[in-house]
User: Which sequence fits this backbone?
């Protein structure tokens, strides 16, 4: 595979960034001039889809699929846009599709879990053919319900069009999003990749945004309706795919429903912005202490116990990010609370806030160029999001409401419960289910945060229990750390905090956590039913953190990077035994008691044992080979360069300001202080680490999933 497809004739080399062109050209010539075409090399053949050969309906069954999917597919002949004008014309029907997607999504909850998702999509399966799709994901085989949903909304938007409020909402979302985008090195590289591989036009961001600012406010509902009908005018193809455990559809019934769609009641207009998120706190908080850090971040200690970090960053002009995190997540709970916590978050997300249901709320947030999203992991809980700088106080008010008024609606509970019950029943029918259960038992020690819930555990979760979890562990001023980073002044950020989050009443529940599961015995699990033609293998090598210094994860990262490079060179390129291979370090979080090297790979089934032995042999050989200081220094430089670039983004800085104490041991440099990291990493220290990784106190787990 590697020799057939990874060849000069199939390669485009794209370099983007703060570079000297002449030096890069010279470097490219030095590195690639000697790369010769392999005799077995092949190049992909690209041809247009023959629409005359596509049937008007088709049904597929699949042994791995869960549930089913019903789609309406439209095929349109036409070239990719090559100019600004052509790209603008395409945007018109994209806006129409986005509005149709929002309408479909609003009706999901009324299906009581039968339809788990509904959306629109488009792609180009061949150079001159556009595919536009309307799709539903079903928990079982309620094909007729899906077709009623798709056909009715399709007929409604084709006959009645969109509303001005819908257009304004999407238009505002586009302008808000595009205003903060810019031609970063990574963006320019991705544009060049799309041009090289797919023939997409190269349009720079400033030109595109300038065109949008001038033209998009002038777009009318009629223009959107005409453009949308132009891509939905042909007779749609009906495509159904389903689990082979489910009965197939009656296509004649689906065609009949498509030809005689039900009428749809027009949705009420959304509420005006005025007074949507007014808050009247009983508690009035203030900043009791302020600290300036060398990293450039300001720290504000609030009287309700929340710590706020502020940092100015203009990498995305006019935009500000936040991250709100509390240490501890699912590791807080034991049975049965943990099951209540696992279900509570998705149910509350689907329950909406105040007068808005979930879909209306999401549409409103998007139209304002905002994002607000809850999170609950094993080690943390909280929210994250962003907004235009001018709307930070609005976003913080919305966050305040989410932390004080979240609710559990009965419709949302019934929907999520049915979704999970159906999924569980389908999982039990999969050939791989027993293998996954074995992984949960042996690798995750049946931890209730990580294993599959039983039907009884699902049904036992009540509305009151979910509300109680929220009240105790999410609501009000938990021991949160709030980071605000973006193109906003300290005074404006402080004003938004003092008007909102500072006024949350204190809520610090007594907590006791547990470690991430850490098996102490060797594990070897093999199961079938992965739905692939190749074998997937994970080799997990771990040893206790207690054997090394508290802040040794830096050295382990460097070692893992060197191991990854060595394994790919030997096993992928020289021996040709794998399609892909990635070695990565784990165990950084405070609740992990082990450091773990994870080697994830894909190979032919008959090469699986050979690959496993080759990985283990290469690790053993590396333990005997010295690693030069120059090699270590080069890897450290590469990691630091990557981190500096990644951490330059406002969202990343907000994330790690809030999460630092979850992933960095006390006494170690702050995760954003890249220059102080990766100190005193020597050949001797890495030699000691790899010996521990393979030593007497280490354990190995090998998980193999087969077709």
Assistant:
């Amino acid at each position: 595979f590697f020799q057939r497809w990874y060849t000069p004739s199939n390669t485009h080399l794209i370099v983007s960034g703060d570079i000297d062109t002449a030096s890069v050209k010279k470097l490219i010539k030095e590195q690639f001039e000697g790369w010769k075409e392999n005799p077995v090399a092949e190049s992909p053949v690209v041809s247009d889809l023959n629409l005359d050969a596509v049937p008007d309906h088709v049904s597929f069954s699949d042994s791995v699929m869960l549930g089913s999917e019903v789609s309406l597919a439209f095929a349109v002949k036409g070239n990719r846009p090559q100019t600004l004008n052509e790209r603008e014309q395409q945007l018109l029907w994209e806006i129409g599709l986005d509005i149709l997607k929002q309408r479909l999504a609003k009706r999901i909850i009324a299906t009581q879990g039968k339809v788990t998702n509904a959306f629109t999509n488009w792609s180009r399966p061949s150079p001159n053919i556009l595919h536009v799709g309307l799709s539903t994901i079903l928990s079982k085989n309620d094909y007729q319900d899906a077709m009623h949903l798709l056909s009715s909304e399709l007929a409604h938007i084709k006959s009645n069009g969109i509303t001005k409020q819908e257009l304004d909402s999407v238009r505002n979302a586009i302008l808000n999003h595009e205003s903060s985008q810019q031609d970063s090195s990574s963006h320019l590289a991705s544009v060049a990749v799309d041009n090289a591989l797919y023939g997409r036009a190269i349009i720079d961001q400033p030109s595109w945004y300038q065109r949008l600012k001038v033209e998009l406010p002038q777009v009318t509902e009629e223009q959107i309706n005409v453009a949308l009908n132009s891509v939905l005018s042909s007779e749609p193809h009906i495509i159904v795919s389903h689990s082979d455990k489910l009965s197939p559809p009656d296509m004649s019934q689906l065609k009949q429903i498509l030809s005689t769609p039900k009428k749809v009641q027009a949705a009420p207009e959304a509420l005006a912005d005025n007074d949507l998120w007014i808050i009247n706190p009983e508690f009035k908080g203030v900043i009791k202490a302020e600290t300036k850090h060398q990293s450039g971040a300001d720290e504000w200690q609030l009287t309700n116990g929340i710590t706020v970090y502020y940092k100015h960053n203009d990498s995305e002009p006019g935009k500000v990010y936040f991250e709100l995190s509390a240490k501890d997540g699912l590791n807080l709970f034991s049975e049965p609370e943990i099951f209540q916590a696992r279900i509570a978050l998705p149910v509350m997300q689907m329950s909406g806030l105040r007068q808005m249901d979930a879909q209306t709320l999401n549409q409103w947030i998007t139209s304002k160029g905002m994002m607000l999203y809850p999170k609950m992991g094993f080690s943390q809980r909280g929210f994250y999001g962003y907004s235009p700088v001018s709307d930070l106080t609005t976003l913080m008010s919305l966050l305040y409401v989410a932390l004080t008024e979240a609710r559990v609606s009965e419709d949302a509970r019934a929907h999520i419960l049915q979704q999970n019950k159906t999924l569980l029943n389908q999982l039990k029918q999969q050939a791989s289910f027993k293998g996954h259960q074995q992984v949960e038992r042996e690798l995750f020690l049946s931890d209730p945060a990580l294993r599959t819930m039983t039907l009884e555990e699902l049904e036992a979760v009540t509305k009151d229990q979910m509300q109680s979890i929220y009240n105790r562990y999410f609501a009000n001023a938990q021991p949160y750390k709030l980071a605000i980073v973006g193109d906003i002044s300290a005074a404006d950020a402080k004003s938004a905090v003092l008007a909102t989050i500072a006024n949350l009443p204190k809520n610090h529940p007594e907590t006791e956590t547990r470690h991430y599961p850490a098996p102490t015995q060797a594990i070897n699990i093999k199961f079938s039913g992965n739905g692939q033609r190749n074998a997937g293998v994970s080799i997990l090598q771990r040893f206790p953190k207690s054997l090394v210094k508290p802040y040794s994860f830096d050295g382990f990262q460097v070692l893992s990077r060197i191991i990854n490079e060595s394994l790919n060179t030997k096993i992928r390129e020289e021996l040709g035994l794998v399609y892909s291979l990635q070695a990565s370090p784990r165990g950084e979080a405070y609740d992990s008691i082990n450091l773990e090297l994870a080697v994830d790979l894909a190979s032919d089934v008959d090469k699986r044992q050979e690959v496993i032995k080759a990985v283990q042999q290469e690790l053993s050989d590396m333990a005997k080979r010295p690693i030069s200081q120059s090699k270590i220094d080069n890897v450290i430089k590469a990691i630091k360069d990557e981190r500096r670039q990644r951490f330059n983004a406002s969202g990343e800085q907000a994330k790690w300001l809030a999460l630092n104490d979850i992933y960095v041991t006390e006494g170690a440099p702050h995760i954003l202080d890249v220059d102080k990291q990766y100190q005193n990493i020597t050949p001797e220290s890495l030699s000691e680490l790899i010996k521990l990784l393979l030593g007497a106190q280490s354990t190995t787990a090998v998980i193999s999933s087969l077709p």
Summary: The two ends are 19 Å apart (CA to CA). The first strand starts at residue 57 and ends at 62. Residues 539 and 616 are 9 Å apart (CA to CA).
